[in-house]
Each structure stands twice: as structure tokens, then as C-alpha cells.
Amino acid sequence: MNSQKDNWARLVPELLVADIKASLAFWCDLIGFQILYDRPEEHFAYLDLKGAQIMLEQYATDVRQWITGPLEKPLGRGMNMQIEVTDIEAPLDKLRQAQWPLFMEPEEKRYRIGDKHEAQTQFLVQDPDGYLLRLFQAH
Fold it and tell me: Which residue of 26, 27, 53, 100 pairs with 9 in a disulfide if CB–CB is 3.0 to 4.6 A?
């Protein structure tokens, strides 16, 4: 018997965010993720975009959260989250319509993987808390 858990990724980042509603508007409405499940009373949501998964939890001082240092924007410094999409124009159009600033405009890039080179179109954008996303579409 399959359960929803059978489709969970084996590595899922959980991001602390300042405002879960603002984050869900960005991640779902602009980028295209869907809520697999949520716990609104805990300001938590588990999101999926065709197998790319992430958890969002609103920062709170009155609950147990694993915080290793001060939370200062931009959050997630030193990392970007690569997310493969099948149609890079869809989130790009939504971001532009919302007048959301891009961290890096779309570019064509080739990366060496072993003895081959793979081409992709990619761009970077920050979410409301400054987490850096690199969306790409392979060619």
C-alpha cells in the first residue's frame, strides 16, 4: 500500500521564515510549488514541485526550533537551492508580473558533468527571507 510518505524526498530542507503567509505566496503562487500538507496551527507547510520538496516553518520564540545562530536577513547565506523546472518561463513570467526582483537574470549555462557538458537555462531569485533559489530548465 502506497502512502503519501512514499513520495517524500530523502533530503528535505526546512527553512525558518518570518511570515509563513508571505512565504507561501512566493513559493506557491510565484514559483509553482504545491502544499502537500500543512499544520496551520504550527505555521508549518510541506511543499512539493514535481519531486523538489521543502518545508517552511515560521520563526517563533515560544516553540522549540533548532537555531544555531542569529537570524539575520538574508537567511541561508552561502547556499543556493537548485530547483529543476520543466518550463522556466512559467515562474519567470509570474515573478515579472509581480515585479519581484531577480538576483540574476536568465542565462544559458553549460556545466561539465563527468566527460560531458550539459546545457541549461537558469536564473536566481531570493524569497521573502533572502533564501536564494536557482531555477533551471535542462536542454
Answer: 53
Q: Is 103 left (phi over 0), alpha (psi -120 to 50) or beta?
A: alpha
pLDDT in tens, 11-55: 999 999 999 999 999 999 999 999 999 999 999 999 999 999 999
**Residues whose CB is less than 8 angstroms from the CB of residue 100 and which lie 6 or more positions away in sequence, other chains included:** 26, 30, 125
Q: Residues 103, 126: contact at Cβ < 8 Å?
A: yes
First to last CA, the chain: 36
CA neighbor of 131 nearest in space, from 29, 27, 43: 27
Q: What is the rounded distance in angstroms from the CA atom of residue 1 to the CA atom of residue 6?
A: 10
C-alpha cell at 71: 537570524
Which helix H or strand E contains 95, and what residues bound it? Answer: helix 89-97
pLDDT tops 90 at residue 64: no
Strand partners for 112: 117
* Residue entry with cell 533548532: 66
